[in-house]
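Troubleshooting: if your tokenizer reports a length mismatch, compare your output against this known-good record of 361 residues.
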Amino acid sequence: MKNILKFWLAPLLLMALIFPVGNKVLASHRIYDIFVAAFHWVFSHASWHVAGVAYIIFRKSGHFVTYGLMAFLLYRAFRAGRRPCLRTAWILRAGVAAAAYGFLDEFLQSFVPNRTGSVVDWAVDCAGIALALVLTARRARRLDEGRVPSPGPNSPFRALFLKRPFDIALSFVGLALSSPLWGVIALATRLEDRGPVFYVQERVGRHGRTFKALKFRSMIRDAEKGRGPVQAVENDPRVTRVGRLLRATAMDELPQLFNILKGDMSFVGPRALRPSELEARGNPGVESIGDIAGGRERHSVRPGLTGLAQVFLPGETPRRNKFRYDLLYIRKMSFWTDLELIVLSFWITLRGRWESREEKV
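Known-good structure output:
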């Protein structure tokens, strides 16, 4: 049973959600309006025709990536950890199953309002399937020939091999399901102080590479003016009324689903810290992350939306203690550990205890 869940859960969840969720989202004019508004915000001089073409490319790219991911997960399920890694039967089964599902999806769209099946869409699906399986077969052959080291049963690489496809699938689903909340949060934020809805922060990611993390703004405008980056404390006067609710439920981090989809972050991992940050307790001062014990080692994996330290330690715990938990996670991480931490994180969100200075779970 464990092997069935381990290898078949991810592709079956993706297949179960593509038709009922994906088609409903794509049939909504609201998604088109949001995309066009965002496109014009980035490319202010673009015409409506260009924005429409960009939306079509966005949709087709979604087809391509989603079905490529499905084909890879199906190959992994058919293989079920057996050796040799490359067998033509597994590749063919994965390709036929993914292409058949794509054909069924296009056929059933004729029964969905505002949606029609398309041979072009199915061709795009099949192109994504073909590319994914070609790359999968190439890597499998390299593994069989010994040109790529085969990960051991407890290797962190084995966890990462499943981790990225899982992140892509779950972030896509999360964006679709949370989309109604975005408008509510944006409206509440604007009504409170007429300030910007989003806040962009520079964070340190895998291998020390910096990236732009997107969040809903939870503090007053210019909260760091004259002070620099300072960790929030209990009853921080900089946090807005809407922000207190967002931070307690972690809803302020919903936009980071885009960072996960892009590959800057993972769902589970060490918290993404800023390049320099003033400690909220002790002697304030700029302290390099690399100078703290364990700071460099924790950059061997992608930072996470949640993690061992985020779930089990209060927010004001010194970073040295948090880094110990991060290193423990890196040594012990597995697919099942990630699932457990994600479930616990949802439980904390439902209870609104992310800002608690006591035990959260």
